[in-house]
Amino acid sequence: MPDSSMRSLGRSGLQVRPYAFGMAPLANLGHEVAETDAFDALEAAWSAGVRYFDTAPHYGLGLGERRLGSFLATKPRDEFILSTKVGRLLVENPLGVQPDDEGFDVQSSLMRRLDYSGDGIRRSLDASLERLGLDRIDVVFVHDPDDHYREALDGAFPALDELRRQGMIASYGAGMNQSAMLTDFVRNTDLDVVMCAGRYTLLEQEPLDDLLPAALDRNVSVVAAAVFNSGLLARDRPAPGTTYNYAPAPAELIARVNAIADVCEAHGVTLPAAALQFTLRHPAVATVCAGARSAEQVARNAHLFTVTIPEQLWSDLRSAGLIRPDSA
Q1: What angle do CA 58, 63, 64 make, to 5 degrees?
Q2: How far apart are CA 111 and CA 119, in angstroms?
Q3: Which H/E stretch holds residue 113?
Q4: Which of 206, 275, 295, 303 could form a disulfide with 40 if both were Cys (CB 3.0 to 4.6 A apart)?
Q5: Between 241 and 50, whose confidence is greater?
Q6: Which bin fits 172, alpha (ψ -120 to 50), beta or left (φ > 0)?
Q7: 294/25 Cα distance (integer angstroms)
Q8: How far apart are CA 84 and CA 172, in angstroms?
């Protein structure tokens, strides 16, 4: 990916390419990934030009941060951008070592404790820096404050704003699987970047009504994550047992995706390539954050960003009512 593809991330001068790397799969989301395979995937991402990596304490109860930190220790610090998240402190589990119960295939003596207070945010960042083995984090997202709106607004965001003023972080924002509360935060805080997971995709475009115009108005960058809708758009055609929002995909959504795939095939384009590039077309979207479990998956994703997609494909999808008429 050439430097000409760089876009601004937030207002702090950070620049990113279209492909950002998300660590959840390499933190054993769903099933175990061997340490060597995780390192090979990260090295493949670096070789493909990826320089923005996103992680969180939530991912594998710290495993995602530890693995990413070990890898980034081999790279010059001024050549990459790193984001992590706050809102879930990792504390000792009184039951000792236990299997994780939130989707990651790990055994750990740690457990998550929600904490969106200012003190919790600072403690979380200190612990993340230790796991990562770094002296600074570029971007910090308040992670999934869906049921903790007031705590985030009164505690987390003021603390992050102060850390940004002190130069401890470059940018801050929120990462969520919805657009409504993200829009509220865009309008009512001074954040400059948000991560929206699974809501602005080739299958869903509701953020056109709220988040995306608000982001443009406030000069806030959007990191689009989960643009494959947890698997439904990840292959040329939905496979048996494919998932949507990490649950079995409804038949009506599978039918819609197959209709989108028909249009893609008519133009010689794969569904995953269209899914990645569709999201990037909106001017508020700075980068697409996609995870992978292997070097082969990384190489495939990197290639998808380079596929030439004819403008007529998007026009045909609009005409068929398969994407919104006001989408980019």
Answers
A1: 70
A2: 18
A3: strand 110-114
A4: 295
A5: 50
A6: beta
A7: 9
A8: 10
User: Model confidence at 246, in pLDDT bands (50, 70, 90)?
Assistant: confident
Q: Note if 59 is an active site residue.
A: yes
Question: Among residues 173, 171, 161, which one has the least CA distance to residue 197?
Answer: 173
Sign of the four-CA dihedral 203, 1, 215, 213: negative
Query: In terms of C-beta density within 10 A (0-12 exposed, 13-18 middle, 19 or more buried), how is residue 266 classed?
Result: exposed
Structural tokens at position 141: 């997202």
Q: If pLDDT is split at 50, 70 and 90, which confidence band does 247 have?
A: confident
**Run of H or E including 157:** helix 157-165
Residue 77, classified by CB atoms within 10 Å of its CB into exposed (0-12), middle (13-18) or buried (19+), is: exposed
Q: What is the pLDDT of residue 223?
A: 98
Q: What is the CATH number that goes with domain 3-250+272-310?
A: 3.20.20.100
pLDDT band, very low/low/confident/very high, at 2 (cuts 50, 70, 90):
very low
The token pair at 136 is: 């600074």
Angle at CA 270, nearest 5°, toward 263 and 37?
Answer: 155
Q: Residues 19, 59, 116, 200: which is the catalytic one?
A: 59
Averaged pLDDT score across all residues of the chain: 96
**Nearest-CA neighbor of 102 among 57, 54, 55, 58?**
58
Cα separation, 26 vs 33, in Å, equals 6
CA-CA distance, 46 to 40, in Å (whole number)?
10
